[in-house]
Amino acid sequence: MDAEPLGQVVRRLRLEADLTLEGLSEASGISARALSDIERGAARAPQHRTVLAIVRTLDLPEADRAAMVRAARDGRRRPRRELPWRLPLPRDTADFTGRGAELASITAALTGSRAARSPLVVVTGPPGYGKTSVAVRAAARLRSAIPDQLFVDLGGVTHEPPSPRAVAGRVLGALLGRESTGEDPGCVRQLLADRPHLVVLDDAAGESQIRALRPTTGPTAVLVTSRRSLAGLEEAGRVPLDRLPSADAQQVLAAIIPAEQAGETDLARLARLCDHVPLALRIAGNRVASRPGWTAAGLVERLAVREHRLDALTAGDLQIRAAIRSSVDQLGPSTQQLFRRLALIEDPTFTAGLAAALVGEPRWRAEDMLDELADLNLVQLAPGDRYALRGLLRLYAEADLAAHEPRAARAAARAAADQWRGTTSSSPGQSGVATRREGRHVPSPRPSGRLAHRHGRRHRAARG
Q: What are the boundaries of the region Disordered (predicted)?
């Protein structure tokens, strides 16, 4: 225990006390951000009073109390070993399951005979779908072909993503093997063009972060993950991630949960309640595995309560609700309102016209907002110019709607949607003027500057 870093000590004791980060924060008076920094190792030497507050809150026995104090003292004594200009890849997930077709597409695009010079692949998908894990696994497969690999977190869903010049500065320091004061993207692109590298750019906020590093020629390959579509990137291979197939989802759970705590039927039910989403599956698996007296069947009963499912999908600092919220927070207020009101639609798919009725906006405005939602993978595109809101994303929208809008507002939005349906329907065998208007043959009126407005909005994060 003496050699255990402070962050690991705090996390272990917090989990043994069955506390989330938020719970420990509320009880101790220390911010959740500060506690997260301690557990991740970003803050290795917190103030003595901070350590004492954690110790008092956890009500630790003397041995654990002494271990935590020693770990904090050692953190203040030891210089940080990790060189600040190093950009190593995260640890590969040992029990990684599935995604064979996606991995084959990535590796073929980056190294195959048809790969372009300086090939680029973008992995996209909704929150929690395992984009980073897929990128790290792909990098591991490519290590023999491209041994020089760099990993950069682009902070796509943070409030202030790093600027393209800041990202270039990080990579320049890694390439030079020392801290660098230079931030010229042109210099970085030239260095990357001279010898083969694999640059993994995780959680991109916008296209400009990628363009700052992508060389125009040379053997360097670039692998990007993002919740956004990054449609402005040219000559990019695109690998969208969907939910895992049922068999793979059950295999993820089986790799985490001990066999004596889960039967095959329970694993199948638990996978369905997790919507076959990788992050939710890992949370559920870890939650059962970390409590020897628990069973998968017991967690199934908890998750079966629809209103409490998102809250139950929490294991320590892993929360499916927080993962979705980080994407929703990127939206403007009007688009957030549309997102939560989409939960009022019971049909499997819907049109922009119905979405417009829910928020009392012109159709062209609803189309813009749906574009924003689709760009962040918060709604799915469906055939026939339609959209869908499914699974855990729908659960989040339902909870957000109940939390932010009174019953009267929800009833009014539902009534407006019903009225719209009535005016756009026609009797069998008749085309109906309103029905033709709902189709795509009659363009909806819109301001001439709409496209410029939309593209400008999409790139705000990158300019930050």
A: 413-464
